[in-house]
Amino acid sequence: MRTLEDRIHDRVDDTVFLVEHDPPVYTVGRKAGALQNLLDAGGAEVIEVERGGDVTWHGPGQLVAYPICKLTGPGRDLHAWLRRLEQVVIDTVGAFGLRGERDPRNTGVWTNGRKLASIGIACRRWVTWHGLALNVDPDLGWFRRARPCGLDAALLTSMASELGAAPDGPAVRRALAQRLAGLNAPLDNDPLP
After folding, report:
1. Structure pTM?
2. Of residues 149, 153, 156, 159, which has the active-site annotation?
3. How far is CA 70 from CA 3, 65, 109, 127, in A?
4. What is the Cα–Cα distance from 54 to 150, expressed in whole angstroms?
């Protein structure tokens, strides 16, 4: 929260934390009834957070990005911000041969009808925090302990599952970091609607 406050007061530039949670945790967003979608934490810590959305899991094999970015001018649009986060993931997995896509009913990034990445954002005084979780090569069994994002856990997938083998973790991390670096660029040439 210190970096969030520092960004609000312009003491730091936009910052992105890219992490892999170990030990695993379940986070529960502000959506009404979200905690009811956690069936059995299996010994993992459960943390209530200020982002939107439901319950989800974070752990080894999953890259989680927390962009702390000040939205200004025409960029003060949380729906456009969410779509930009989705595009970052779509572009990242595309570099590894996966076709990521949006689902008009659910946030996140999907491939072949299964959810590959979850997105949940929070914003204070037009500074965002929380962000996205990309399933690279996690133990998908953790998702079966919940109804992640209110969905049937069978709808969750990973890059490893879709590609038939685990991609190079450091290469995925670099690809995601490169795309996140330009995340809050001016919207002048933004390809998103």
Report:
1. 0.91
2. 149
3. 12, 16, 23, 4
4. 6
Give Cα separations from 87 to 37, 184, 189 (angstroms).
27, 12, 14
Query: How far, rounded to the nearest angstrom, does the alpha carbon of residue 11 sit from its chain's CA centroid?
Result: 25
Which amino acid belongs to residue 65? A
| Sheet (strand 101-103) strand order | 15-19, 62-68, 127-135, 114-124, 106-111, 101-103
Average pLDDT, the chain: 91
Helix (H, G, I), strand (E, B) or coil at 188: coil
Q: Cα separation of 162 and 69, whole Å?
A: 31
Structure confidence at residue 187 (pLDDT): 42
Q: Please report the domains of the chain, with CATH numbers, ordered by start residue.
A: 2-181 (3.30.930.10)
Q: Any idea which residue has 């083998």 for tokens?
A: 165
Cis, peptide link before residue 193, omega less than 30° from 0: no
Instruction: Tell me which residue of 148, 118, 123, 119 sits closest to 50, measured CA to CA.
Output: 123
Assess whether 149 carries a catalytic annotation.
yes
Distances (CA, A) of 93 to 19, 50, 63, 70, 168: 17, 27, 12, 26, 12
Contact 109, 179 (CB under 8 A): no
